[in-house]
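*** Backbone structure tokens ***
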Amino acid sequence: MKLCCCETVRFHPTPRNIDLCSRSKIRKRKRVGRLISEPSPGHFSSGEMDLAAARCWVVLVSMAGKQQRVAIFTTASLPWMTGTAVNPLFRAAYLAKAGGWEVTLVVPWLSKEDQVLVYPNKMKFSSPAEQEAYVRRWLEERVGVLPRFDIKFYPGKFSTEKRSILPVGDISQTISDDKADIAVLEEPEHLTWYHHGRRWKTKFRKVIGVVHTNYLEYVKREKNGYVSAFILKHINSWVTDIYCHKVTTQDVPRSVICNVHGVNPKFIEIGKLKHQQLCQGEQAFFKGAYYIGKMVWSKGYTELLQLLHKHQMELSGLKMELYGSGEDSDEVKASAERLSLDIRVYPGRDHGDSVFHDYKVFINPSTTDVVCTTTAEALAMGKIVICANHPSNEFFKRFPNCHMYNTEKEFVRLTMKALGQEPIPLSDELRHELSWEAATERFISVADIAPAMSVGQQAPSSQYFMRISPEELQKNMEEASAFFHNTISGIETARCVFGAIPNTLQPDEQQCKELGWNLER
């Protein structure tokens, strides 16, 4: 996994003689009406300087005039408890809390027929306003009152084949042109596979993609999976290249590998309580091992049950509970019952539920997440985590309670060892690394969303007079590629061949009515 640092963060003019960054010495010098933050060399690592600059920028931009407008588009919404519903919601809230941004979260609106398929307990909403109220109430119960941010809805449909929500029509229209500064595409490949309409880079000054799901791992498990994964990898690289200026958390064109997600503050509070109990010599954990995740085979259940099946003798003392709901629940439960181990299966529930507080070991063999949210949550609660040594777990290597295995034998050894020892109390520094405050700082740094981007482009250099520069040639090729994609994505037959839901070029009359949109003919 490659690790990259973003460029120096640039700022608009701010009042003089303000020492806002005590950790880094900032030299101020005039350059095209901007200030440039330059931490003195030798004091900090490049990563520390990036984060220091990001922290300074949050304060500086809040003192500036016009706020930047950030629109966060995602592929799911509460009450669906999935990472692409929860993480973008927290990102919107904490960007709004940091100040300097006028934030809008843009989520899919489903018809009632699809809501029943997606939302737990057959929950249904009659209007977007009703669902918005639910989302805000859920958030405030977990983080308290935060600065307001807008929530808007775009039309979506649930694909039973892909087990995910796909956009209908040109969802960039959700944001008016006068508010189109920065777009954050949570799952950019997912949002652009079948995009037909205005090009994201044309509408927005900057487009940041945040990859959540390792679709290649999913596809590899299907028939002819490696061939399909090869094709999908190139399609993903193509669409993210033509629609995003920068992508985080996965190795695709224009990417910066960085974990920009945090955990619900509730998990950190649980961890602090457990830390206090351990420091006082009390027993903090009374239960053994567990796993929680959507109950589909590709979410780690295949690997987990295979490991447990092969090593039943060595793991004879293991008692483990599995929590999850999903399409494969019955099959997973039947497979678990065939093992000689004490494995029990329960319906899915919120990871912050009190039933999980006293578990000591979280076992997560899944490799289909880009960064696994449940692993971060378990570490925040002070638990020992057993997971695969895989790029998706790179961020967690710094945590002493995270034990990674390379082989099946290592899995057995680490699991049995973890059951017989107590977790190491988490330091304040590492606890902060899991927080949304730290994740927001990292996001600001790698996304490079400083106001200096609004400065007009410099005039072309005379050395390129009467000939095309390499940059101009690349831009022309990219525009031609985007034109080709837009043409293909506008042909219904081609869309269906590549897996789009039929008749999703435009929202239907019912969706427009529910969203208050004018139906285009």
